[in-house]
Design goal:
The protein is mainly beta and about 675 residues long. It has 4 helices and 51 strands. Helix 1 packs parallel to helix 3.
Amino acid sequence: MEFFTLLQQHLWITLLCFADFYVSVRDCTVEMEPVIDPPSLVVKYGDPASAICRTQHNAFITGWEAPVEATRAAGSHQAVWEVSSLTNWSLAKGITCYGIYVGYAECLAILSITIYKIPERVTLSHSDPVLKGAENRLEFSLECDVKGVAPVENLTVIWFRGHTELGRSEFRQLYWSDDVTVRANLSITDSTEDNRASYSCAAHLDLDTADPIPDTRSNSILLEDLYKYAREVSGGDVRLTEVNYTGDANPGVMEPSGELPSVGNSREIILGVVVVVVLVLILAVVVLVWWKCFKKLAAYVSKPLNTNMESFHLLQQLLWISPLCSADFYVSGQRCRGKEPVIDPPALVVKYGGPATATCRTEYNTTRMGWEATMGASSKENTQQLVWSVDSVTDWSLKDGILWLAIYEYKPCTTHLPITIYKIPENVALVLDEARPLLEGHEYLLECEVQSVAPVNNLTVIWFREDTEQKRSGYSQFRIEGDRDQNVTVRANLRIIASREDNRASYSCAAQLDLDTAAPIPDTRSNSILLEVLYKPTIVSPSEDVSLTEGDRLELNCTADANPSPTYEWRRDNKTLENNNSSSTLLIESVEMDSAGVYECIVSNTQGEVSVEIRVDVRNNPRGIIIDKPRGIIIDTPRAIMIGEVVVALVVFLVLVVLIRRKHCKRNEPHQ
C-alpha cells in the first residue's frame, strides 16, 4: 500500500488537473456552492474563532478541511468549525469548506482568515550624533524596533517629532504567515533651538476589525540629550531612508515608496527560476507515480474480491481520499451514469444500540457487489441485490455513513449511505447556581445539564416556567464536554431576574432531538426547581378615607403581599395603638369623637417596609343614640318616650271604655 499513501499525498497537495484527470468540482453549480458565515475572519492571536458552513440541496457530507479542528458531518447540511484559542499560524492561509453531493460532485468555498498580533513592544534607539558642515548641523539615525507583530503587510511604522508626524514606513510587498520582528530606520539632519523636542515611533495595524486596533507607541528620545549646539533654524531637514525588515525567514529590503531596489529585483528573478524548476520536478514525479499506481490498481481490481474486503479498502483509499479520477476508474462518473444503484432507505436515522438495515439494488449484472463498513461489511459475486444489516449499532464511526461498491466489468461505481446515530440523553438535570431563597431584583443562573446525548448539532434545550415555554438554546450556546463525534455532555444556561411572580413557581428544562424519524423522539424532561423569592411588602387592598357618626363601627384594612410574612403596626396621629398592633385589620366597635384622626398602617419584613395613611372623620350624634354594648341593642331616647306616652294613653282609654261598658250593662238589667 506504499504507492497509495504516496498517491494520496500528491493528489491532495497538488491542484493541477490535466488530460483525463479532473476534479469533481467541475460538476458543481452556483446553487450548490457552500455558504460560509461569516465570509471572512479577522482574529487576534490566542482568541477563539468559529464559522459555520452550510450546503444546499442533497449534500450528504459537509465538512471543513483545516490544519486544526477539521470536521465532517454526514447526512447534515451544516458543519461548524471552531477553536477555543487560535495559535496555529498556518490558519492564516485560510481553510476550506466542502460539500459532497450525490454523484460525488464536490463543491468548495474558502474562508479567509487574518491572524493579527499586537506588538509585544516597540523600542526606539539612536546612533551617536555627529556634527557636520560649517553650520555644525547634527546628524544621527533612529531605529524603530517592532517585536512580535503580525501580519507584517498590514503594518505601518509612523515617525513623530513631538506630536507632529514626520512620515510613514510601510511593508505592503512583504508577507510572512507568523509574527516577526520589524526594524525601520530614519536618518535625521537637524538644527533647531528647541532642545526639549523629542522623537518617537508607533506601530499601526490597519485591519478591518469591529474596534480599531490601538497603536503601540515607543519610548521617546529627547533632543536635549543629543544637542550641544543651538542654531536659529525654522526646522530640521528630515528624509526617510531604507527600511530594514527581519523576521523568522530571510530578511527583505524595501524603500518606503514601495519600489524594490535593484538587488531585490535580481533576487526575485532567481527565486522565480528556482520555483519554476521545483514545480516542473514535482509535476514529473506526480505523473510517474500516478502511472505506476494506476497500473497496480488495475492489476488489483482484475482479481476477484475476497471476503475480507482488501480490494475494497484499496479502492476506498483512492476513491475517498482523492478527489481526482482518471483512466478507467470512476466514482459515479461518466461510466456509471445510468447504472446508479438504488439504496432503500436512501438514508438511515438509527438509535444507538438499535438495529439497522439497508438494501442496495441495481438492474445490471455486477462482477461483485459489496458493502464497506466498520460493522456488517459483506460482498457477493454476480448479484443485483445485497443487504447490509447489524443487530446493534454501537460503532460511532458509522455516523460518517457506509460505502456501497459495485464492479461492472472491472469498472467500480460507488454510492454512499448516510447514517445518523442518535442517543437519547441518559439524564437531564437542572441546577441553580446559588443557595435559595432568592432575592427580588437579583440575577441568577439556571444550568441545564444534558448527559450522554448525540448528535449535538440536532439538540435543542427548551426552558419552561411551569408548563409555559420561556426560551430555546441551540448549538452556539452550548458548553460541550466529550468527543463531538460520539455522545457528549451538554450544558446550557438561562439567566433570570428574580421577581415576586417567581415565588412558588417551578422551572424545568427539556432536551429535544430534532431528527427525521418515523415517530417523533420524545423530549427528555429535567427535574423541577421550585423557587422561593424574598420580597418586601406591597399593600394590595388599603381602605379609603372614611367619615362616620359617633357610635358607628370602624373597620380599616391594609392587607399586604410579602415574603416572608410581614408584621403590621397601626398608629393614629403618630401614636402607636396598643390593642390593634399585629393584624392587617383595625376594628373599633363604637367610635367616639376622639377616634377621629389620621391612621397609619406600617407593614414590614426582612426585605423592607411600606406604609399607608387613612383619614377618619367622626361626626357628632344630635339624636343621642346610645349603644348598649353588652347586648348590642341601640335605644333612641326621644322616640322611646313618645312610644311610652302613646302606650299609657291607650291603656287609659281602654280602662275608661271597660268602665263605661260595665255601667251601661248594669242599667239595662231587669229588676226583680
